[in-house]
Design goal:
Aspartate Aminotransferase, domain 1, seven-stranded mixed beta sheet, 13 strands, 479 residues, alpha/beta, four-stranded antiparallel beta sheet, Aspartate Aminotransferase, domain 2
Length: 479
């Protein structure tokens, strides 16, 4: 093509491609439309169900364009009104996410300005915000200033980063893998086993430590298992404890485990994805020893009520993290002289990364910390209130939880597991409030996880009324 042909083609393409850069008047109109939708959605949350059956239609990507109004109507019907309403206080099933409005503003700002937060050289301010969030987390959990951390998509990636650092610190590779030992309880989140498999430790020895009646690791048994494995010529290197288990809300005896891992020179990891931020509440004493961990994970999209997609990992041994993740290339030469620990990408598998720090930083700056702590204290009290209400209604309860996850079942005279399954099905069919189930000690149980910032006393009252209503149906069917 000659120059004239190229210019003619560029003019043609520009007429089409310019559609992506929307004029101010259209931007203003679209923002008004989105604002109206957001306000309507939030205002309606108290009056709609926590769960609805899914539909599957209308979401295909086609060549023709559709207006924002059309797409929001479609979104409302096919996304917002199906499945679990995770923005609602009526999500009491799995560990809820949050969705505070100020975090949505942060995501909007991050998307519009689009800074690259992975490398300090590329956007010093964005990298500093990421690092300031990590510094605040270090202060919350009494980690030293020399510790490092990164913000990730959630607990799964955070666990993977911590375990990789532990693997590399202890040189667990080649023929040593089959002799290396990891210690955990059956109550760990399943992302633990998944992460170990992903980083090549599928063939390592996994020891499941017995737990007590409160679903906590028995520390003396752990110590004995490690001693036995060392005497047998094996290579213990990693102990994984929980500060708030998903199933039962239990906190392992962290201080005792820390002493054991220190004695045997093992890496001590704490999964505090769900429960960690309760350390800021009256439950703080239950976290004694967490500051002695070599690594820990915590999810701001759980205990800080932020939208899904932001977890954090803190690690004391920065050199191990850098060894696992730091790499460079010729096209990155302009940034290689910066301090390595300033760049979040050097502490994570992600090079391209979402500017997650802003969705944590902005809400904390706008609201302060006090409302978040008050919400967490509220959830602890609501859990006690819920258990009292169910106990008075004849239900059996699991042990008193350390945090805000509890489980229960109805003591039917016969075939209890089948009938409690029926009760769970009725609860899901009702959908007023969303609960979930689990199997604990071979018993089918129903779980309640109270963490959503919009969950209030009225929500718990509605949940109890729904459970009683659904129980009545099961009892009438089985008469």
């Amino acid at each position: 093509m000659d120059s004239a042909s190229i210019i003619s083609k560029l003019v043609e393409l520009n007429a089409l491609s310019s559609a992506l850069d929307i004029p101010e008047s259209e931007r203003t109109s679209m923002l008004q439309t989105m604002s109206y939708y957001a306000n309507h959605f939030i205002n309606e949350l108290p009056y709609i169900k926590g769960y609805n059956n899914a539909q599957e239609k209308g979401l295909e990507i086609k060549s023709q364009t559709r207006s924002l109004d059309q797409l929001l109507n479609l979104y409302q019907k096919e996304v917002a009104e199906t499945g679990i309403n995770a923005a609602s206080g009526k999500h009491l099933g799995y560990i809820p996410g949050g969705g505070v409005f100020t975090a949505a503003l942060a995501d909007f700002l991050a998307a519009v300005t689009n800074p690259y937060a992975g490398v300090y050289y590329a956007s010093p301010g964005a990298a500093r915000i990421e690092n300031e969030v990590v510094n605040w987390l270090k202060s919350v959990f009494s980690f030293p200033d020399s510790a490092v951390g990164s913000l990730n998509s959630g607990g799964s990636i955070s666990n993977l980063i911590a375990f990789t650092a532990a693997r590399d610190k202890h040189q667990v590779k080649n023929e040593n893998i089959r002799k290396s030992v990891v210690y955990l309880s059956e109550q760990v989140h399943h992302s633990t086993q998944k992460a170990l498999r992903i980083i090549g430790l599928e063939d390592a020895i996994i020891r499941y430590i017995p737990i007590d009646q409160h679903h906590r690791i028995i520390a003396d048994t752990l110590d004995n298992l490690i001693e036995t494995d060392i005497n047998d010529g094996l290579i213990p290197f990693l102990v994984i404890a929980s500060a708030g288990t998903t199933d039962t809300g239990a906190i392992d005896p962290l201080d005792d485990i820390a002493s054991i891992t220190h004695k045997h020179n093992l890496w001590f990891h704490v999964d505090a994805a769900y429960g960690g931020f309760f350390i800021m509440t009256s439950a703080k004493s239950r976290f004694k020893g967490i500051e002695k961990a070599d690594s820990l994970i915590v999810d701001p999209h759980k205990g800080l009520f932020l939208p899904y997609g932001v977890g954090a990992v803190l690690i004391k041994d920065s050199q191990s993290v850098l060894y696992s993740n730091y790499y460079t290339a010729n096209y990155m030469q302009d940034g290689v002289n910066e301090e390595m620990l300033k760049s979040p990408a050097n502490l994570s598998p992600e090079l391209t990364k979402h500017f997650r720090g802003l969705r944590v930083w902005l809400p904390l700056q706008i609201h302060g910390i006090a409302p978040f702590i008050a919400c967490l204290e509220e959830k602890l009290l609501l859990t006690r209130y819920f258990r009292l209400q169910l106990s008075e209604s004849g239900f059996s309860l699991g042990p008193e939880p350390d945090l805000s996850v509890s489980y229960f079942w109805y003591p039917f005279d016969s075939d209890a597991n089948r009938k409690n399954r029926q009760l769970m099905e009725e609860i899901h069919q009702d959908g007023s409030v969303f609960l979930s189930s689990s199997i604990i000690d071979d018993r089918f149980v129903i779980r309640i996880a109270i963490l959503a910032f919009r969950t209030k006393k009225e929500t718990i009252d509605e949940a109890v009324a729904m459970i009683k209503r659904c129980l009545g149906k099961v009892l009438s069917v089985n008469e």
